[in-house]
Amino acid sequence: MKQRILTGVAAGALFILFILIGSVPFALFIGLIAAIAYFELVVMKGISAMSIPAISGGIYVFIFVVEAALPGIANYVPYMQLTAILIIITLLYMVFSKNTFNFDEAAHLFFSAFYIGLAFNLFVNLRYLPGVGLEFVFFIIILMWSTDSGAYFVGRKFGKRKLAPNISPNKTVEGMIGGIVIALIAAFIFEAVVPHPLFHSSWGLLVVVTLIISIFGQLGDLAESAIKRFYGVKDSGRILPGHGGLLDRFDSLIFILPILFVLNVIG
Questions:
Q1: Are the beta carbons of 237 and 245 closer than 8 angstroms?
Q2: Which of 196, 191, 194 is nearest to 206 (CA)?
Q3: 1-49: pLDDT as tens digits
Q4: What is the 3-state secondary structure (H, E, C) of 62-90?
Q5: Which H or E run contains 117?
Q6: What are the transmembrane regions (predicted)?
Q7: Is 13 in contact with 141 (CB distance < 8 Å)?
Q8: Phi, psi of 77 (to 5 degrees)
Q9: Helix, strand, coil shares of the chain as percentages rounded to 5?
Q10: What's the pTM?
Q11: So where are the chain's domains?
Q12: For residues 216 and 223, what is the distance between their CA atoms, to the nearest angstrom?
């Protein structure tokens, strides 16, 4: 537990520092996180991280994320062309790998690269929103952490009904509800003290967005648990002692951001 707390404090402080710095350092830092999370998914599948398709996917993810802060990159490697290059490399490798690399693995690599790249691209873009970007980033992060803490402590104290026993046996319905309640409290406090309210005192909109973040954040956690259970692993990686991998820490964020994007909450 001590190691878990120390790792969480150190990693959280570093993460917040780069958010506050913003600009290119933030984009490069998030690009690195995204690439590592991608490689964790690659290894989980049993694909060598040193294979040509895996490395190509990692480069794709990094450029996709960093491009959000350096739009000039698109003048040299436009996103659609970059995607086409990844597909071509992956399929050509399948042809010349003598059946050591199949279409199932190719599809896994491509989906992993796009899903993770898209989410972290949206995260960097959100930080660059004029006027409210920094506040919105902290709003989402605080709600995620509040939801996780509320679900954990309420679940341990009052949890009886299993939420998804076949995927994550320790999660409970009571814990999920507790996470939502704590997130709502955190959201109202945040909106009351932030210098520039995100929702212009529209409490109804604040509640709706908070519910989306809290509920779908927990579903994102379950989605990653389902992936890990399918591949028979406990953690996505070992980069964070006591916490597992980066995918374990950012599974909720990766799930939330595309949903907020589809609903035009962020763009």
A1: yes
A2: 191
A3: 667 778 778 888 999 999 999 889 999 999 999 999 999 999 999 999 9
A4: HHHHHCCCCHHHHHCCCHHHHHHHHHHHH
A5: helix 103-127
A6: 12-39, 51-70, 76-95, 107-124, 136-154, 175-194, 200-219, 246-266
A7: no
A8: -130, 85
A9: 75, 5, 20
A10: 0.92
A11: 1-128, 132-232
A12: 10
